[in-house]
Amino acid sequence: QLKKLDRAVSAAHTFFVANPQHLQMREDIEKYRRMSGVKSDNFRDLEATPHWEAYEAGVQHYNADEYLQAAARLEESLTEALAALEECRALCEGPWEDEDEEEEEMQPGLYEAIAAHYIQVLKCRQQCVLEIAKKPGRVSATEDFIPSHLDLLQFAYDQVGNQALAAECAASYLLFYPMDEPMLEKMKEYRTELGEDTAVTAREIIQHYVQRSLMEKKLIYYAVEHLGGTFNDPDLWTPDELIPENLKEKHREDQEKQKQETLDVEEREKRGPLPFEGIAVTMDSRQMNGTQRVVFDRVLTESECKDLLRLTKAAGEAGDGYRARRSPHTPHERFEGLTVLKAVQLAQNGDVDWRDAKLFLQASEKSRKIIESYFTPGKKLHFSFTHLVCRTAIDEEQEGRMDLSHPVHADNCLLDPEGQECWREPPAYVYRDYSGILYLNDDFQGGGLFFTEMDTVTVTAEVHPKCGRLVAFSSGKENLHGVWAVSRGRRCAIALWYTHSQEHAEQERVKVEELMEQRAVEQDRPDGEEHQGTDRSSRSSSEPPLPNSGARPTSRRHKPGSDRTQHPKELRARDEF
């Protein structure tokens, strides 16, 4: 309001970095980007720490193949990060903090109390590496923050022809991971190129960092073994031999848990049989240049699509589920949505045909069975949320349009494309495991689904909607996706999310089942058949029966546009496809 745009933009950007789910702030950011008086330098994070600011700039240069600039900013980041680490370690000094009852038991006498206090300081110092690895506004830390600098620097220096510095960074990286085969191979190349007489050593500051950290870990593990207590090792590179034998099992479990979060492609790509005849796998993960992705066709017939499209017209108020807002992702489209519960309630009120509401349930359950059978045979998938959604282009709002129908995002983590991370923490729907989109039509322009790399601009695969086509994929950062702008017409689909966690199953389906059972009793037809209504004999004979949802509580491709303003973070509003 004071017309100080530079400060307004910086304040908005700072807030948005820490709150990427905030829809109003996203709209404000987009508005600022279109204003002529705003410069790109105005989009500054006022809370950014020096090392994170340099790190993100370095990563951006690195991804743009600007290796000289990347090396300079990454060197700056590494220097600032190590300085921030020392400051954090200094703040660990101080009086004993009585936080852990388990550690209270360690100090029945003076010597034990001194030891407990000292170990508390050491543990605090060890955790500092996580503190500096957390981007401001985030809860989770970037893994291997210090080693990753050296890895990136080694490659950057190699690309600009500075073999001496590349070798130094490689030697430094090997202090963390001495058995890393690719880096060992690079070291052999560097020694050959530089000559055997040229000494290649790790950086002194990194040697000191590793030696000190290992000494502290050794003391902490000794204390945990002999005095009790626990220690959450912040590093993935801790040598196995440093850990006492009786603690190794837990350490292995922790490491396995971390590894499990990374997709084991060979194991996860084993597929189960499809539960219905006539369904075709049109594209698999390999053809879509990714993992845990698939496209099925002929899941619905043309007749079924038409019936469901008729049902969408009864959605009523635009933006159902969004507190009567229009599209939460773009001002250029109108958004309509219908949940399974509302569909049944509309049928109960006589606003829609009961057969159409039932078909909605059947189509979603059929999709669930297909996805469960293909991706997780033998492991139950529960509905997390189901939404029949339509996006309609607003004709007078299409000229000069630069945005997407739905910005690039992941379904169970908060996307940070600048930091090349996706944070699996609230407010993201962290319990989602698989996602699906069942398309109902193709008589519109735009509206295709696309997958990208972590930069959110390098498209790896595209899927064009059509009646009966089901796209399914795992919900994590390995499947970042967005929707091209709907520039003309109306695009309708059933958006589906699934979870292995029964406690997060879609509770609306419990109510739906109760209403359906109630109707069956009222009609004295236990199988739920309708006594009146239009003949739907043209429907597929492979339709599943009324679902029991299980919800009861017991190579780079082309880029999607040069406009970098369409790089939003994850949105908290329901991630409609």
Number of domains: 3
Quickly count the helices: 16
Q: Describe the biggest sheet?
A: 8 strands, antiparallel
Tell the overall outline. Answer: globular
Task: Walk me through what this model shows.
This protein is of the alpha+beta class and 577 residues long. The protein folds into three domains: 5-33, no CATH class; 50-97 and 109-259, no CATH class; 280-520, Jelly Rolls. Helix content is 41%, strand content 14%. It contains 16 helices and 14 strands. It has helices at residues 5-18, 23-34, 50-63, 67-90, 101-104, 110-132, 145-159, 163-176, 181-194, 204-227, 245-260, 265-268, 302-312, 340-348, 354-375, 508-522; strands at residues 280-283, 293-297, 333-339, 382-393, 406-409, 414-416, 421-423, 434-439, 444-446, 449-452, 459-463, 470-474, 480-483, 486-499. Strands 1, 2, 3, 4, 8, 9, 12 and 14 form an eight-stranded antiparallel beta sheet that branches. Strand 10 (449-452) and strand 11 form a beta hairpin. Helix 7 (145-159) runs antiparallel to helix 8 (163-176) and helix 8 runs antiparallel to helix 9. The longest helix has 24 residues, at 67-90. The radius of gyration is 28 Å and the shape is globular. The two termini are 36 Å apart. Mean pLDDT is 82; it is low at 261-268, 317-325 and 528-574.
